[in-house]
Amino acid sequence: MSLIKAPVYIGSDPEIFLVKDGAVIGSEKVIPEDGLRIENGSHYFGPEVVLDGVQVELNPRAGASSQYLAKEISNAFKALKAHLEKTPEVAVCFNTVVDVTQAELDSLSEKSRRFNCKPSRNFYGLKSSLMDKGFDSTKYLKRHASGHFHLGLSAPIYNQKVDERDRVVPPLDLLAGNTGTIIDRDPGAVERRVYYGLPGEYRLPKHGLEYRTLSNFWLRAHPLYDLMSGLCVMAVSLVHTTMSTNEDIEMDIMAKVDLEKVILAIRANDPSLAWENFEHVKKFVTDHVPVEKFVVGPDNLTQTEKALKLFETEGVEKFFPQDPLAAWTGDGAKLTWRNWLLENMKD
Description:
Radius of gyration: 20 Å
Order of helices and strands: EEEEEHEEHHEEEHHEEHHHHHHHH
CATH architecture: 2-Layer Sandwich
CATH class: Alpha Beta
Largest sheet: 5 strands, antiparallel
Strand order of the largest sheet: 1-10-12-11-8
Number of helices: 13
CATH topology: Creatine Kinase, Chain A, domain 2
Number of strands: 12
């Protein structure tokens, strides 16, 4: 049985930081309160770039393909780049975890100093330390940049009679969260997940499901974005195929996976354990994913594995040295994962 690609609207609201003289500054000092839009007049219902505490948040429009969303992310970055031309002393920082001085926090508005996130759900019942009694975000001197994906789901997973949206969460952890652990080697990742981005973390908005485990590491380059968004679509397709056919393709992989190991790999940012879990992904891709229909298939699995190993050991910056802002606002926003592998991971 081959995996059937599910119809998925895909969106995202990734975060970044602003720095001045090498230090992180609050976004409210640079970004207007009502946000930014592209200069040529956007018909978008809201701003593409907004304030979110210390962070800057991108609000690209969702679309029916990863390519559409990539274009919208590019537009958001273009709006930000144009605005920053007025303050050349301020630069964009794509780090996942940053330190903020107490003096900087104290200089910001009450809204920017505090974490204002609405509570998330957790498939495994895990609790974030953000919920601990007595936690004071105005005294916590680190901030984390997320890379959430919003997945617009439809029947049979989600309609008036059936709502099995949360069923997609474990496949998302295995395919996207676990793979992200191999790539995202930020030493602050373990602490980040004490407060934010736990395995199994999600919300259920009206459009479908928001997967909240990933950091913003995939903003480093478009091929990384294409890989991670494509793995999210693959996870949805896993559930969609099982519910649309008489073949339980979902259990062919999930029943063989030790989810406790997936949870631990993500929480501890443990690449060795993530690689153990990835063996199940490899077998599933080989057995069930049709050639060239998904971001990873049997035709590029070997090259994908090679790239992931290099990312783990040598860091993604070596392979994507271009400034991410320049890449997203130029031709770098068009290079897919498959094409990048063809150019860079030749046998």
